[in-house]
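Case 231 in the screening queue. Each case pairs one protein sequence with one candidate compound; here the compound is S-adenosylmethionine. For every case the pipeline is the same: read the inputs, emit a complex structure as tokens, and attach any notable structural observations.

Predict complex for case 231.
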Amino acid sequence: MDAARFDKRGYPVVDAATGYDEWAATYEATVATGLDEPLLDGITSVDWRAMHHVVDLACGTGRVGARLAAKGVGAIDGVDIAKEMLARAEAKKLYRSLRVGDIAATDLPSGSYDLCIMSLADEHLAEVAPVYREAARLLMPGGCFVLLGYHPFFLMNGLHTHYHRADGSAVSISSYVHLHSEHFRAGLMAALSLVEFNECVIDEEWLKTKPKWRPYLHWPVSFAVVWRRDA
Ligand SMILES: C[S@@+](CC[C@H](N)C(=O)[O-])C[C@H]1O[C@@H](n2cnc3c(N)ncnc32)[C@H](O)[C@@H]1O
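Case 231 output:
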């Protein structure tokens, strides 16, 4: 469902490609890294060093690619819809390939990846089923799909992904609420098996990364799911 129905801020809304092209220059300095980094580090079902072929869906500036490279994964291919985000990823020189495209319909080869990862992007997709199908298509048998997402409860709290323009004005990026049952159905329909599911709740430690979010202490803010394509 369109997150606009829960919006409490009333910022102007732009589509993902427009918004991230504009946000790219300041994205890494302003994104709430507490949303996905602790969850990524907490995943226990993936042997990162055994992930020789990785695809990073909605790779953005390559922030997650850099984290995966530090964990010892092999070659990483990235896909994103925003050219300005991809330019930052390119500059990191970490990716084997980068392409502009829709993560729900890439032109990457089927059955080629041990690991497919997508961080902080599902809220920009009107439907999650197509990207689950695409992840399942890209994975080798036994491969993992790791999805890190902004928590649907937090979006329903009216706080949508937004950034500030150079003049200080705030802009929201169009967002959708996907309940966890939607993810569950989409994974099953794509013939994936759920192997891990974690949620992140804002606590005192978390607030050190974004002190302004104190009013949301105890709110669930993000989640991680790990799926496996059966061998
Ligand atoms: C919050 S950023 C996350 C970027 C990166 N994964 C990270 O965690 O830093 C969301 C990204 O999703 C991309 N995106 C949104 N919808 C997309 C789509 N349909 N196809 C490809 N990329 C998309 C945006 O361009 C943006 O780079």
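Case 231 observations:
- Residues 16, 20, 36, 58-60, 63-64, 80-82, 85, 102-103, 119-121, 124-125 surround S-adenosylmethionine (CB under 6 Å).
- The first helix runs from residue 16 to 30.
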